[in-house]
Fold this sequence. Notes:
GO terms for molecular function: signaling receptor binding. This is VWDE protein. Pfam families: Ig_VWDE (PF25776). InterPro entries: Dev_Signal_Modulators, Ig_VWDE, VWF_type-D. By secondary structure, the chain is mostly beta strands. It folds into three domains: about 10-100, Immunoglobulins (Immunoglobulin-like); about 105-225, Immunoglobulins (Immunoglobulin-like); about 235-290, no CATH class. The chain is built from one helix and 24 strands. The strands form six sheets. Strands 3, 4, 6, 7, 8 and 9 form a six-stranded antiparallel sheet that branches. Strands 11-18-17-13-15 form a five-stranded mixed sheet, with no helix packed on it. A four-stranded antiparallel sheet has the order 10-12-16-14, with no helix packed on it. The longest helix is centred in the last third of the chain and has 4 residues, at about 210-215. It is elongated and about 115 Å long. The termini are far apart. About 20% of the residues are buried.
Amino acid sequence: TSLALQPAITPELVQGRVHLKCSYSPPHPEPPVQFRVLWSRLSSPGKREQIHQETTPQPFSYVEMDGANLRLGDTVFCTVTAFRRGIPEQQSLPEDSKGFYAGIKFLPESLEIAEDGKEHVLTVLSTVPIACPGQDDSCKMTLQLSTEDLGSQVPGPPDIALSACQVDLLPEPCSGSSCAAATVTVTAVTDFAQDGNRVSRVSARPAAPRDVLWRAYTPRDVKVTVRDLPTGNCYSFTDPHIITFDGWRYDSHKIGTFLLCRSESRAFEVHIRQWDCGGHRSATACNCGVAAR
Length: 293
């Protein structure tokens, strides 16, 4: 029957190399048992490929992430079966661990933001330990970040901006699903264009990794959908007629320099200068200069 072995995978550094450890709960009190541990990885959706199998009396099993049989980007499972020593045909039902994704994760995995100037925090984390080959003081994994527009109706530069072009993942004790983490903020570019909702992506690439494990690895991208917000307009034209953001209309025939618009939430304002363009016939002023901050 099922023994509730509850196999679970955790990452670990063993002699400076990245290993995955499958731990399970042996039954008590029972006669001595052996465990058959089968390691597999997701080769395609819903399909697993066996990578290692062993029989052990220990309540754990290790497999190395060697970059060949087991690579970064793999989702790994361990399946455990127990049997009494000397009676291999009497075995418990096989029990699966949850899938363990080995590599870089972005949290959240996708973002939907608006052109409202707000900053959104994106966490970049490694689910496996950062190994440090050699006795180098600067032990870290640098990720180069980039953004790209994903074929919107109006082609152009990405609709998002990042607070940094690269982040450093510094080794720390593994906790939860994170062995190293850094944050970057994502902001929608306010372009004042009615260009519809656009999709961009954030990509991360390991920069000049010394560790073989990281060399051929490309982390998953993050999709960022930017919701277009309607843009307000105000006008000052002809002699001058002024239409405000909320549609109020009036005329201003005065001569001088005036504050046309000022934001209460950010450093933005517009000044206009008006001069006499009506002569003796009428008191008319026209815009002759504008300054925007």
